[in-house]
Predict the structure.
Amino acid sequence: MGNYRIGIDLGGTKIESVLLSPDGTELHRSRIPTPKDKVYSLVLNATHEQILDTAGQIPGDHPFSVGIGIPGAMDRRTGIIHKANTTCLIGKPFRHDLEQLLGQKIAMENDANCFTYIEALKGAGKGYGTLLGIIMGTGCGGGICINNTLWKGLHGMAGEWGHFAIDPLGRKCYCGNRGCVETKISGSGVEASFHEAFGRPMKMKEIVMGFRSQDPHCSRIFLQFLEDFGRVVGGLVSMFDPDAVVLGGGLSNIDELYDIGADRVSGYAFHKGTATPVLKNMLGDSAGVLGAAWL
Ligand SMILES: [Zn+2]
């Protein structure tokens, strides 16, 4: 009999946990808010308590594994978090500190890697040897999974396509560069482009609806979004030539990404007419926490 598995998805607003039985059945799920003032010790202790609470649901005295998805990248050589949306984690040995509190080893991965891993293992990417995970939401992230093994990279940042600085005249990105992909094709990036072009705010959802009802302003911005998506993901397809691409994050619900967008990907790839499937994720919002549990 294998171990019980605890998965934790540490996000900017909530810490979600899941408990899986040794056969993979989901037994328990809960979430608590991420401490508001985002002090490192508070986030560390809240994560620890969430693990203990979840472990309390395990019948008897069975051993369990713990996997954690974090909104950042951990340097594989030092164990130090070096990029994170939850900025109090930056520069901290989060995994080490948590292992000390818990008294056992834990697995830790970037949340986009958790997404790609579980989609490869049990979701839309199941059966594809090489899978490229593309997450587009408020930000852009990604991961690479080869034969059900994550390709992490020396600094734990493999697959971070959102910060290619492609436009020296573009908007400043929080990472310090200018004109990152994320400033163009994330939800907030597209909204900023609309505001810049037409001097009024417009939500991503409204831009998509506007395109569908042939509003000229929305159409211009939305088609540019699909063009940029194709240009960047087409480049990634040329680079990795994956067996499939799986999309996640809030923008992955936009149907046009799978026809017009996929067409642009093929058009911008080095080999014209690539047949790389662009797939919608299957596990939705659960991907992060399930991916962490299976790490
Ligand atoms: Zn950036």
Notes: The chain has a mean pLDDT of 93.
